[in-house]
Amino acid sequence: MNSGCPETFQSSQQFQQGERGAGSRFQDRHQKIGQFKQGDIIAFPAGAAHWAYNEGNEELVLVCFEDSGNSANQLDQNSRRFFIAGNPQQGEQQQGQQGGARSFQKEQFQSGNVFRGFELELLAEAFGVSKETARKLQGEEDQRGHIVNIDQGLRVVRPPFSQEQEEREERQEQGQYGPRANGIEETICSAKLRQNIDNPSRADVYNPQAGRFTTVNSLTLPILSFLRLSAARGVLYRNSIMAPHWWTNAHSVIYVTKGEARIQIVDHRGQAVLDDRVRRGQVVIVPQNFAVVKHAENEIFEWVVFNTNDNAMINTLSGRTSAIRGLPVDVIANSYQITREEARRLKFNREETLLFSCSEKSSQYGRVAAA
Prior knowledge:
One of its GO terms (molecular function) is nutrient reservoir activity. The protein is of the alpha+beta class and about 375 residues long.
């Protein structure tokens, strides 16, 4: 929700008639409500209020990523937010800095929503309500925390959302209904905030034997240019590898959503800083210009990566579009002290771009290493 944007969703009198007793009529108006599903990337502008309601039959897991170094964060390198409603019981404050390296110290303290700090009479006057209502607004006696159960469902104004409508929106995004917008006519109130990266048909890189890789950046979701963030989703099939690569202009945060894989990360000195197996729910940080390789061995491996650049760029070390592929064979041969034939094989043996299926020998090595 952005302050100043119009309340474009409005209920009719007939729909709400009688809710406050016989003969009473009530109209509700609010800003647009969107729906999201598994695989959606949702961008929130800095300072935008938001809420979420799980109306499905499954547990909802949200992974939140904030860039505290964004220019919108004017205080320091710590990310701060407050609640408009609810009563969060505990808070954490990060503070302290020693010897040039930041240290984090968690301080437990009682906290509440932002209204708790205001004087009761002033709060009641500001909203034009009774002191009792203002007291409930502060939520001091509310012990539910910031996640609450709704017994009879949530009644809000919104149009039905069909699968046909979703497919039509996807076709519009892919340019099938005319040229893409140039962004000039997009305002903060009408900006697109959501894009799904779970649909296999929208993959940027696809190998039927190895997997797929889908990105979202400021070119496909323009609001990301304000957040200076981008994201990608990867799927590696069993016995497949993602080419050794590095992000040229961004740090990346990898969150594993399914399966297990071996990950190796190498720094600028050629030292392996990580060589381990990661599994669902784990997070891996990859600094800018650190090379990384992923190997899915006995099961499908899926992950999401968040990048600290709205148009993060990736370079590969092997494959058809790699740095090695761009070098002359003689340069490769002399650089690594190998024959021209070995250099030719090194350069041309992999015709894939990013995702490779492994040889049986590599698969056997992976199983032996895991044993």
